[in-house]
Design brief:
483 residues; alpha+beta; Beta-Lactamase; Helix Hairpins; 3 domains; five-stranded antiparallel β-sheet; 10 helices; 12 strands; 17% strand; rod-shaped
C-alpha cells in the first residue's frame, strides 16, 4: 500500500519496532533453544551409547577369556549352549555363540532359527580374530547395538560370542527428553517474546508520542511539547523536538513582528505620497508649495523603491537565488563615491561624515554593486541614529596576517545594547528602538558578506557609539562562481 503524499504512512502491526523487536527475540530464542536441544540430545545419546558399548565390550572380552581358560578343550558346538546360558544370566543383552563359519550355535533368546551371520560386520571381524562393534536396525526397524569377540584356543579362532542389545529403550528415553526440552523451549520462547514486547513498548510509546507531537507541530500548534521518559537517545530526540518547536515559535513571532514593521515602513511613504498628491490635485497655485510637494513625493517614491528592492533581495536570499556578479574591485574608489553620495544627507542632518581609507589597498574578487549596497545600509543606519552634531566615519584597512580586507562604519550614536548586538543581522529581527525599521538591511548585509566569504562584526556599548566591521577575503577564499 502506497503512502498518501504529504502524510505519514500507517505502519502494519508487525512492521514497526514492536513487531521487529519481538520477532527478533522470538527467532533468537527459538534458534538458541533448538541448537541447545540438539546438542544436549546428541550428547546424552552418545553418553549412553558409550556406556552400553563399554559394558558389552567388557562382557564379550570376559566371555572369550572364560571360554579359552575353561571350555576350550571341548568342541565349541558342545559348550555353546552352556556358554550362552552362563553369560545371559549376567546381562540384559541377548547372547549368541557362533561357529567359525558364522552359523549361530546357541542363542539366549531361545530363537528356533539358526541363521548364518558371517556377513554382519562385527561377526566378520570377530571371526578374523578382532573384537568389533556394530549398530544397525532389525528387519522390523528396531535399532540395536552388537559387540562380537573371537573365541580362540591356542591362537586358533573356533568361533565368536556376540552380545546384542536393543536401543529402543534409549530412543524412547531420548524421545521423552526431547518432548520435555520442546515444552521448556516453547515456554522460554513465549516468555522472551513477551519480554521483547514489553521492551519494545518502552521504545514505541515514546516514539508514538513524539510522532503525535511532530504532527501537531506540523499542523501549526507550536505550544505542544514532548515528555522525556528516559535519559537515552529517544529522550535526547524529545529535547531536540522541543527545541525545534521553541525555535519555530520564536521565528513565527519574529515573522509577525517583521510583517508588522514592513507594513509600517510601506505605509509611511505611501501616506506621504497620497497626501501630497491629493493636495496638488486640488490645484494649489503656489509654485514653492508645488515644488515642495513634488520633492517629497520623489523622495518618498525613492524610499519606497529602495524598500521594495530590499524585499526582493530578501526573497531571492530566502530562495537561494541571490546572484553575485564578481570582478576585481578596488575598494577606495567605491567607498569614496558612496560617501560623496551620502554627504548631502549628512549635512542636512547636521552630521560630519568622514572617510579614512589608506591610499593603496589590494583589490578583492567581489560584486561592486553588492558591496555598495552593504555600505549604503551601514551608512543609512549610522546617519539615522547619530544625533545632530555627531560624527560618522567610514574606514578601511588591510589585515595582512589574516589575508583579509576590512571596511566599515563608526558613529557617535547611542550604540547597541547587548541584546541588539546578539541579534544583529538576524533574519526577521527588526530593531527595538523607535525608527529602527524592519531589520532587512542588516540581514542582507550579513548574507551578502557571507556569499563573499566574509563576516559582519559589531562593537558597541550603550551611549558610546557603534563600530560595524565587514571583512572580505583577498583571494580564493571567496567562491568564484555565482550563488
Amino acid at each position: 500500500m502506497m503512502a498518501t503524499p504529504g502524510r505519514p504512512s500507517q505502519l502494519r502491526p508487525w512492521a514497526g519496532i514492536r513487531g521487529r523487536l519481538a520477532g527478533t527475540y522470538f527467532l533468537l530464542v527459538a534458534v538458541t533453544v533448538l541448537l541447545i536441544s540438539v546438542a544436549l540430545l546428541t550428547a546424552v545419546r552418545q553418553y549412553y551409547l558409550d556406556n552400553i558399548r563399554d559394558i558389552l565390550d567388557q562382557q564379550a572380552g570376559l566371555a572369550a577369556q572364560f571360554y579359552q581358560s575353561y571350555l576350550g578343550k571341548n568342541p565349541l558346538v558342545q559348550e555353546a549352549p552352556d556358554l550362552a546360558a552362563a553369560f545371559s544370566a549376567t546381562t540384559a543383552a541377548a547372547v549368541q555363540v557362533l561357529d567359525s563359519s558364522g552359523r549361530v550355535l546357541a542363542d539366549s533368546t531361545a530363537a528356533s532359527d539358526r541363521p548364518n551371520l558371517s556377513s554382519a560386520p562385527d561377526v566378520a571381524r570377530a571371526l578374523a580374530g578382532k573384537a568389533a562393534t556394530y549398530s544397525g536396525s532389525t528387519a522390523r526397524g528396531e535399532p540395536y547395538l552388537a559387540v562380537a569377540a573371537p573365541l580362540a584356543v591356542d591362537g586358533t579362532v573356533q568361533g565368536a560370542i556376540r552380545f546384542v542389545t536393543s536401543l529402543a529403550p534409549l530412543e524412547a528415553l531420548l524421545g521423552r527428553l526431547a518432548g520435555r526440552l520442546a515444552l521448556l523451549g516453547i515456554l522460554l520462547i513465549l516468555v522472551m517474546t513477551a519480554v521483547g514486547f514489553v521492551l519494545a513498548h518502552t521504545i514505541v510509546e515514546p516514539v508514538q508520542e513524539l510522532t503525535g507531537v511532530a504532527r501537531r507541530i506540523a499542523g501549526g500548534d507550536l505550544t505542544v511539547r514532548a515528555r522525556r521518559h528516559f535519559h537515552d537517545e529517544i529522550g535526547t530526540l524529545a529535547e531536540t523536538l522541543n527545541y525545534m518547536a521553541a525555535e519555530l515559535a520564536r521565528l513565527d513571532q519574529l515573522k509577525k513582528e517583521f510583517v508588522s514593521s514592513v507594513s509600517h515602513e510601506l505605509r509611511t511613504p505611501l501616506t506621504a505620497i497620497r497626501g501630497w498628491a491629493v493636495s496638488l490635485k486640488e490645484g494649489s497655485v503656489d509654485p514653492a508649495y508645488q515644488e515642495q510637494g513634488l520633492t517629497i513625493i520623489a523622495a518618498e517614491s525613492e524610499r519606497l523603491t529602495g524598500l521594495v528592492e530590499e524585499l526582493l533581495d530578501f526573497s531571492r536570499l530566502e530562495a537561494g537565488k541571490l546572484t553575485l556578479r564578481r570582478g576585481r574591485v578596488a575598494l577606495p574608489p567605491l567607498l569614496q563615491s558612496t560617501v560623496a553620495e551620502m554627504q548631502p544627507r549628512a549635512r542636512r542632518l547636521g552630521l560630519t561624515l568622514t572617510l579614512d581609507v589608506p591610499p593603496a589597498l589590494p583589490e578583492v574578487n567581489a560584486d561592486p554593486a553588492r558591496l555598495r549596497q552593504v555600505l549604503v545600509n551601514l551608512l543609512d543606519n549610522a546617519l539615522k541614529f547619530t544625533p545632530t552634531g555627531g560624527t560618522v566615519r567610514v574606514f578601511a584597512g588591510l589585515d595582512a596576517p589574516e589575508g583579509r580586507l576590512t571596511f566599515g562604519v563608526a558613529d557617535t550614536g547611542p550604540g547597541f545594547t547587548s541584546e541588539e548586538l546578539a541579534r544583529l543581522g538576524r533574519r526577521f529581527a527588526p530593531g527595538s528602538r523607535p525608527g529602527a525599521g524592519s531589520g532587512l538591511g542588516l540581514a542582507l548585509v550579513k548574507e551578502i558578506l557571507a556569499l563573499h566569504g566574509g563576516e559582519l562584526k559589531a562593537e558597541s556599548a550603550p551611549g558610546q557609539g557603534a563600530t560595524v566591521r565587514c571583512t572580505l577575503p583577498l583571494d580564493g577564499m571567496a567562491p568564484s562562481t555565482d550563488v
